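Tutorial sheet, problem 5. The two components below are modelled jointly, 716 residues in total.
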Amino acid sequence: MFRRSELFEKSLIVILLLFVFAILVLSQLQLAGRMLPVLLQEYFPQRAPAEWVYGLLIPIFAFDFSIRYFFQSLPAQHVRPYLHLPIQSRTLVLYRMMRSWLHPVNLYLPVFFYSFIKMTINPATSSQGSGLLGIVLLVAINQGALMWIKSFQGNKMKTLLPVIIILGGTAIAWSLYTDALMQHSLDMFLGFVNNNLQVFVPVAAIIVLLHLLAFHQMKKGFYQVFENQSPREAIARGRFPEGLLASVPKYGQLWLLEWQLASRSKRSRFNFFGMIPMAIAFSLFIVLGQNTQPETYIVIILMIAGSYGGFHLQNAFSWESHFFDFLATRDIPLKTFIKAKFYFYSIYAAIQLIVLLPFVLWHSLELAMLFVGLFFYATGFGFFFYLWTGVGNSTRLDANGRSSFNMEGVTGIKMAQVMVLFLSVLPFLLIGYILPLPHGSALLFSLTGLIFILTHNSWINGIVRKFEKRKYVKLNLYRQK
Amino acid sequence: MHIRIDQLTKEYNGNIALDIPSLEIKKGELVGIVGNNGAGKTTLLRLVLDLIGATSGSVEIDGEKVHENHNWKKQTGSFLDEGFLIGFLTPEEYFHFNAETYGLNREETEQKLQEYSRFMSDEILETGKYIRQLSTGNKQKVGIIAAMMVNPPLLLLDEPFNFLDPSSQIIIKNLLREKNRQTGNTMLVSSHNINHLADICTRVILLEKGVIIKDIINTEERRMEEIDKYFNSRA
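Model answer (structure tokens):
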């Protein structure tokens, strides 16, 4: 009855990529667990690595809890299909709790500590297994607390207040009694590895209590799983920049529509407004990195090449698919529609570049030139690529629900599109490296990008023709989905 | 506006969904299309709006084939289903955006909307909701108003009475009849509701399995008796 997996919703390529990604992350955590004792020994030799980390368990788990609070929600989609069936509510609540336990956030600390304990606990004198069990129990406390707090759905005060108390209290207590709390933390862990029941029993009791409280509250608010299906949204009433966009002749109304699409849906808003903070984060990373070699920033370069508007454009014509029948029956020339989209995201990309450029320029002229080249490349070739492939793809994504990188529903083709654009910069970097020219890669990126920017009129015409040819098939597929 | 259909067929996987050798809808007619599920009503409307490609034949609006140019779009208002709504806009924003595509400014749009205030019954405007948050009935109203508010010379509505409460059904019925009489606009309305169509339409076309079974001029005297008889015999 409960066997249906959400993985059925994903394409095989995505499952494979997710699997590879998961293995990569887990191996990195394992490596971190092995490397940390060595690094701590080297840089902070005044204490033993074990004393550092086991003494910091309280802030570590407080941090873990804060991560959970923001990123781990109680499973609802998995339960909804069963609400109509004659299944006892307690069974469904237990199922919901079990699903919540399967969240990946429950995995990273045990994986990290597995190797850290191996490196720091002597199996001849203490039990490594009990130490790991202790860590799992602490994870269970956070999991139980999270489930309990999140089960007060719809009551923001009741969900937020305990978090403020827990995190605030921990922060204050830690700042006042750092040494004492570090010692308590260390003692607790020593209690675990020495199989001390006086430590295990209270921890287990807290876990049981939190799970019982969560069960009781989830059962009490059982029908909220239903009621919260369409939470009430606050209507955007900002005059800026909507008024400004609307006043622009010719493209104004379409820019306004694009803005509204990007800013009024959960996923698209996150992607759209994430661009500027991302540029700031890149800037800080580069300035703090103290390294002017472009190769060091290859990941950033790859991300930038795919990022300008790409988060939206990888869904080119997909989000609009929900109202393409409207667009197709109104007097909105497709060429104007696509051009408006191209200009809108080019301007947005330019803002991102303007934020980034002073930092990079101050740091290294070579890097600055490379980033400018990438701006031209991504806004020229990048947009062309996304729009062109967008015509061929009839996947229908919901901006407010399913969307790329929201792993529930990303398709292999969409993932592949992004990967192709990410990887397309590699030959440029290679050729630029071989060319006997200063700033070879930057010049190549700029040249390619500028060619596409300057010829945008003709390739947009090509996209329109391609779209018109495929129009009936595409609209039909949209409707079927 | 004048619609002319010539040798129009639409097939899906070898099955004929629509086969209309010839059909003319003259300017000013209010034509009802009636038929059971799968009769081809929506297919016909989609073909007229060039939303699906015909397997053969053509649809002309005012002498121009719909798939060859877009001139008809400025003259046509339509609402078939939710694919005509923009969920992330409020109804006000949607009406303005829609009206803008027909060249109406804000004041004109506000003025036009007033004609539909009874139909909206305080449930559409200034509710602080996006269209995606409205009930199905209210979404239906938004789509119908957007199609009608620009007074298009050609209006196409698919199942406009669906999801509407009884009062709203009567209001929209009267609005369609009045608009047709006042403006002389051509209207094509599909519905399962024979009574509503009998009340307002000047002509009723009965579709069955993609074929026109009857094409009746609906006068006071005849009052759709033929259509009634047809469905009674199949019930």
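Marking note: The first strand of chain B starts at residue 3 and ends at 12. Full credit if you identified this.
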